[in-house]
Write a structure and sequence with these properties.
Layout: H1 11-25, E1 29-31, E2 40-46, H2 53-63, E3 68-73, H3 82-87, E4 90-93, H4 98-111, E5 116-120, H5 135-143, E6 147-153, E7 158-165, H6 171-182
Parallel strand pairs: 1-7, 2-5, 2-6, 3-4, 3-5
Antiparallel strand pairs: 6-7
Helix pairs in contact: 1-2, 4-5
Length: 196
């Protein structure tokens, strides 16, 4: 995978200090930690309802010492911002080629030499959706890595890492369990959260 802000010496130390200070001063509490079996994992990013989710996610990642990569629609990677967005850990996504994305993500996780946490929003968009996309699930099962239930609750100002979830192979049952975990958490724009 490409170099990011999280493995750039000096910069990562300064931004971690800034993130800790900013989140503390603004009243956010960061919870949890990445367990040993989550060094290579898929992190669910939910609920995803605002552009503010990205900067907060980056700051939480610094606080928890994560090495995240995240997916974003290809339009935000247009010049002159492409290099910068990729340095922030971004991976451009063409929504019309989701199957290729799953296969490429599986391969990237398998080939990574060090820790790699791939952040995937199951809604696939900030807009209100009725159903979650299952790409995160197939990436995790294909790469043989666990899913970490990461959350951000703007109402209570808490964010962090919840339990590690090992897919059983029963997509429907697993999605029901995962969604039950996320039920109490409120995004920045709760009206846009998916209901199913």
């Amino acid at each position: 995978m490409h170099r990011t802000i999280f493995d750039t010496p000096g910069v990562n130390t300064l931004l971690r200090a800034f993130s800790i200070l900013f989140l503390k001063l603004t009243g956010w509490k960061i919870e949890g930690h990445l367990p040993p079996d989550g060094q290579k994992s898929v992190l669910i990013a939910a609920p995803h309802t605002s552009n503010w989710d990205l900067p907060y996610t980056l700051m939480v990642a610094f606080v928890l010492r994560l090495n995240i990569y995240w997916m974003g629609k290809e339009q935000i990677f247009k010049p002159p911002f492409r290099g910068f967005m990729m340095w922030l850990g971004g991976i451009p996504v063409k929504r019309e080629s989701a199957n290729n994305l799953v296969a490429a993500s599986v391969q990237a996780i398998k080939e990574a030499n060090g820790p790699l946490q791939l952040v995937v929003p199951p809604e696939g968009t900030r807009s209100k959706v009725r159903y979650w996309k299952s790409g995160f699930y197939y990436i995790a099962t294909g790469a043989g890595v666990p899913i970490v239930l990461a959350y951000m609750d703007y109402e209570r100002k808490i964010s962090g890492l919840g339990p590690v979830f090992h897919p059983s192979g029963d997509l429907e049952a697993d999605l029901a369990r995962i969604k039950a975990f996320y039920a109490p958490y409120k995004g920045k724009n709760p009206a846009q959260s998916g209901s199913n």
